[in-house]
User: Fold this.
Amino acid sequence: MQGLLRVGPRQVQVAEVPRPQLEPGTAIVRVRAAGICGSDLHPYRAGGEPETRPQGHEVAGEVVALDPHQGVAAGVREGDLVALDTICLGRACGDCRWCREGAPLHCQRRRQGPDWSGAFAEYIKRDVRGLFPLPANVNAEEGALVEPLAVAVHALRRAALQPGESVAVIGAGTIGLTTLLAALGLGAAGVYVLARHGHQAELARALGATAALTGPPEEGAETVRRQTGGGADLVIETVGGTAPTLDQAWSLLRRRGRVAVLGLFEGAVPVALGKALGREATVLFPNCYGEQDGRHDYDVAIDLIASGKAPVRRLLTHRFPLQDAPEAFRTAEDKRTGAVKVQFIL
Assistant:
């Protein structure tokens, strides 16, 4: 099959790679839409050893082959359009403590092998438990956005968002904007988005943000404190990297509020913990998705999309065939293109 491989810093190419083979408890899915995530851009920039198998985890496609777990109803059929949890349920053992607790991200016995590759390819294999059927009114492009929406849903549920609370979101990339949509869909009374780029702020306003702020961080914090009467109940950090966004979070937060950190911090960053202590803040580090109160974050995300509460399709700014992968990655990396979400459509 055709698959996308990184071959050097900012160099990707489409090559022939092994097609995954069905094995017990798995399904083969024909990829229909796959998104480029910010986490895909980190190795794209850095280079490192050339890839031998495709990556990519924001994906929806059609089930073409199925071998369910013996004695367990699959929940999907051949021909179904599904969103895939490729990272957690799609590879987890299903039997360990973490799997039983609904936290398969922490499974230490993940299924693996040379053909357990990612979504930047024509076909992908995953455990049947990681496949979520999409309703008739949700298409593949929206289905590939279930994953980033589920990341936001997981953070808000872990942080115990209550209807009527205020939320401040630092960052307006895909995760920042899905957090906006999820917060509104789950009942937040006001959502304030701090954006770096004008087109991101414009989209945040169109999606229902109470305010989308692009000025200096101090001005944004003052606006949030003024409009919320002292600071947001919950702050979600979605930027990561090396920016001082954790310290920015304290200035947006009310006393005894909560901060959920979603941004990817690969190295040490200085943090003024005295400010967090002074506010008696609760800080969480939600990661990926799982099950809570008997429902998986993917199920909640799919319901938000199907109901119209989370119009994720409006985040999709660019579509490319897999053969145009170099241009697609250049577009996703360069925000001057107006890119929010770039997808491969197969």
